[in-house]
Amino acid sequence: MDAITANNSTIYFNEKCYKALNKHIKLNNFSKIFILVDENTHQYCLASFLEKLETNISLEIIEIESGEINKTIDTCVGVWNTLSDLDADRKSLMINVGGGVITDLGGFVACTFKRGIAYINVPTTLLSMVDASVGGKTGVDLGHLKNQIGVIDSPDLVLIDTSFLNTLPTNQMRSGLAEMLKHGLISDIAYWNKFSDLSKLSLDDLDVLIYESVIIKRNVVTEDPRENGLRKTLNFGHTLGHAIETYFLGNENKTTLLHGEAIIIGMILACYISSELTGFPKTDRDFIKDLFIGYYGKTTIENVDIKPILELLKYDKKNSHGNINFVLLESIGKPKIDCIVDEQIILDAFKYYNN
């Protein structure tokens, strides 16, 4: 698979990753290399990565705890202090080896340490390969509110080695698949149709599907790097999905949802709202609901949960001028941005999901 350029970054795949990485290190006079991992990627991915890294530059491993709950400014402070203690300077390189928490947080740390050091993303989960590591969005959560603090600044390289997917549990693979399904719904009916029977997807299919998904996201972020228009379409399903994810994360009586699990619910809700407001065909709406619930199952969202979920909508990053802005669909592959939705229609969408 050929390399993909995206703004100021280049994305390499599989065997080409490490040739590009080693060449990049040789061409740049980095003073030190810092590799950010969590306990999982330290155990399952780091040794394989280091075997293919060719350099005599001093290496330091920094480990943080895994999980969205640790994607915070406090964690950043710990990493910043560690970089300072280990004499990192502006010619240092940070390599983020992990899922979306690692690439988001590691990118933010790199972009802000000494006003910015170089960084490379090595996504190890399906979600981070097709979403978090591509496009230059970095950041951390503010309490339980997702991605409230951050900057947009592209890594030097993104290295997608799909062999890392062999280390993932099934629920993490499904979480990543949700973003690929979203890419199909917002941009390309031919790509979407490849997912019409999720039970038939195999690991052998994934390399090509991942590559196509990255191209879809690359095309969007290249045209609109600062999210002024087209890039907003990538938030399809995320307005309510993020609110649901945040609510479940902060409620001790709920089982925490993975990002993709929450976004699947958000997309079902957005499809219902689309069928009410933008003419999205009800046959497509119902097919999507049945497909998603058949593969992901249904999450219990009780009536008592809905009001606090709606309260969280006011923190959505797409909001402007006091309006909550939704991304909806007119048809598969034809999204509509900046849609204002009456609360009653949102309540009806939850009824549709629950029934």
Automatic annotation (TrEMBL):
Keyword Nucleus: no
Annotated function: Catalyzes the conversion of 3-deoxy-D-arabino-heptulosonate 7-phosphate (DAHP) to dehydroquinate (DHQ).
Biological process according to GO: aromatic amino acid family biosynthetic process; chorismate biosynthetic process
Keywords, comma-separated and alphabetical: Cobalt, Lyase, Metal-binding, NAD, Nucleotide-binding, Zinc
GO cellular component: cytoplasm
Cofactor(s), by name: Co(2+); Zn(2+); NAD(+)
EC number: 4.2.3.4
InterPro entries: Dehydroquinate_synthase, DHQ_synth_AroB, DHQ_synth_fam, DHQS/DOIS_N, DHQS_C
Protein name (record): 3-dehydroquinate synthase
Xref: Gene3D superfamilies: 3.40.50.1970, Dehydroquinate synthase-like - alpha domain
GO molecular function, one term: nucleotide binding
Annotated 3-dehydroquinate synthase N-terminal domain residues: 62-174
Statement: the UniProt record of this protein carries the keyword Methyltransferase: no
Domain 3-dehydroquinate synthase C-terminal: 176-319
Top EC category: lyase
Primary gene name: aroB
